[in-house]
Amino acid sequence: MKFGFFCPHEQHAPSTLLDHAELAENVGFDSVWTSDHFHPWWHSGAHCGAAWPWLGTALERTDKVEFATGVTPPIARYHPGLLTQWTATLNAMHPGRFRVTFATGEAMNEEPLGYEWPDYPERRARLVDACRIYDRLVTGEFASYDGHYWSLDDARLYTVPEERPPLYVAGNGVHTAEVAGRYADGFLTLADVETYENELVPALEAGAADAGRDPDEISRTKQLTVSYDEEYAAAVESAEFWSGTVAVDFDDAVSDPREIERQGRALDGDDWTDEWGVVTDDFADVERVVDEHENAGFDEIEFLSSSPSQATFAEKAAERLF
């Protein structure tokens, strides 16, 4: 089992996240993941730095820890050809240390920039275009592609790494899991174990079978949301920043962080803490959830920690899990 540490641009300033990335490497995490949003999931006290310039700096500031986006939606603001170029460049400079994760995204990334927020079938079709474009360009050969939404016209990447950078696809439903099975080197999900085992794994395997791929070669990662502190009330208070992710569904056309925060604050505390993740004053609760996901067949746990002290959480994880 590998363990990742999430650096959320929504909750911390970019310079602070660089310190967190160094902390994660120093205590022994295998990977550092980072969000890629235009707007955050909260308004009060929020940040929202740009992921891609931060990644270049973070890779230089560290020595061996792997990095990944969690997630990058190729829906409107990003052409997938550019995402492939950025991924190839980072891996050419830091071989084997970066993977990009495509997904169907949220309205907060598109609407504030004047783009439409299409419904899920349209976003899924654009995701498929993006995966196909990635596969063509990452080879370093000339490629053309006449897609549903995204296209290429005799395009070539002139800087590519020696080995293919892994492409991950993130999703919580069967249709995106099927796309991951067809195209991805790895699959990231927030889904609970029951949904993962009963719905997502069969879809992932079906997609792989249709594409003539071995599903066992697709790495499986779970993003586990955690807020840990020896004082339970402090853990709850720190995690409230993310209550908007419970109030607003990823498919909802809500892009204003003020509205997301309003809906999050309107939730009953017990309701959102039960649904959001592990909010605890006992690290054994974290260990039990990790064991549950390892038994379900996940290869990696990526922790989005909203703990009052990231250093305390990271050091406790290293002590109890690694």
UniProtKB/TrEMBL annotation:
Q: Which residues form a coiled coil?
A: none
Origin organism is: Halocalculus aciditolerans
Alphabetic keyword roster: Oxidoreductase
Q: Please state every residue range assigned to the domain named Luciferase-like.
A: 1-274
Xref: InterPro entries: F420-G6PD/mer, Luciferase-like_dom, Luciferase-like_sf
Protein name, UniProt field: F420-dependent glucose-6-phosphate dehydrogenase
A single GO molecular function, which one? oxidoreductase activity, acting on paired donors, with incorporation or reduction of molecular oxygen
Q: What top-level branch of life does the organism fall under? A: Archaea
Q: Which Pfam families match?
A: Bac_luciferase
Q: Membrane spanning segments where?
A: none
